[in-house]
Here is the input.
Amino acid sequence: MTVMKRILSGMRPTGKLHLGHLFGVLENWKKLQDEYECFFMVADWHALMSEYEKPQGLQETIVDNVVDWLACGISPEKAHIFIQTHIKEHLELYMALSLITPLGWLERCPTYKEQLREVTNRDLSTYGFLGYPVLQAADILLYKAHSVPVGEDQLPHLELTREISRRFNSLYKKEVFPEPQALLTQSARILGTDGRKMSKSYDNYIALSDQPHEIAKKIQSMFTDPLRIKRADPGHPDTCNVHSYYAIFAPERKKEIDVSCRRSEIGCTDCKKELARIVVEYLAPLQAKRNEFSKNRGAITKILEKGKNEAHEVAASTIAEVKELLGLR
Ligand code: TRP
Ligand code: SF4
Here is the structure.
């Protein structure tokens, strides 16, 4: 038997999951769980680093996100699905890595500087937020993950993780941690309803749990070809976001829409109505599974308990090794 390489990845529970998560993260995780030993973690401490002023509803969001993972086909039989705060060892390793992480590395981190600049509705000038990448490094190194599936925005954190790993190994003269590689997820294929990146903060998302009428309403509000003002104007599907959704949800139908749009045989309202039906139908099996899991909180608790035990076994052994090197018992 060949030993599978190990992966760890995490998601912050900051709200409902949407189509961006489905195509950008979850479909990728689903494939990876067959090729790697996967640790998929709900990063609730990381969520609190920016949401600490409003922790209300955090438990509901965590469960709701896990329900989405399961409905998408992330399987507790294949992957270790767990909650970061259930494993205290994350904090122990976080502390140990904090000891050796130079302040400059964190202050210079591009994501940190950007967030401090751009996020104006929360106070992120905290000690905890500066340490965000150190906790992320602890998440990854605790399981000695070889690879980390991430989007491009997370690359600076992975680079820091590798630097911290090297520094730890060299200080304590032992190859405790591997240098984890980024498994770059191709950037999300789907844009938000306003044409920007799909994101909760832009309020331009279609949630995996959205009801048919909400989906229809959101799709009806989408921008289309700006040059097509009257119904009789020939359309330019290449510049239309609705058309790009067809490419994802109904590639066959997309070709016909392309022609009808250019010949102005189809109007945007009808084009969107049809797309809404297609998206609703696409999500129906996922939503059916969602409903089943949501009704069965007991099953979710069991799955998370199983994941916790599996994760804890690895975490405890890494921490024992680290403490030994630090002269702790
Ligand atoms: N910072 C990641 C994000 O915002 C979430 C995360 C926390 C993570 N710990 C991780 C991702 C470990 C990969 C590995 O998306
Ligand atoms: Fe876009 Fe469809 Fe309108 Fe053409 S008909 S511009 S593809 S919404």
Q: What stands out?
A: Strands lie at 6-11, 37-42, 80-83, 147-150, 181-184. Residues 151 and 239 are 25 Å apart (CA to CA). Residues 224-225, 228, 235, 237, 240, 242-243, 257, 261, 266, 268, 271-272 surround iron/sulfur cluster (ligand 2) (CB under 6 Å). The radius of gyration is 22 Å.
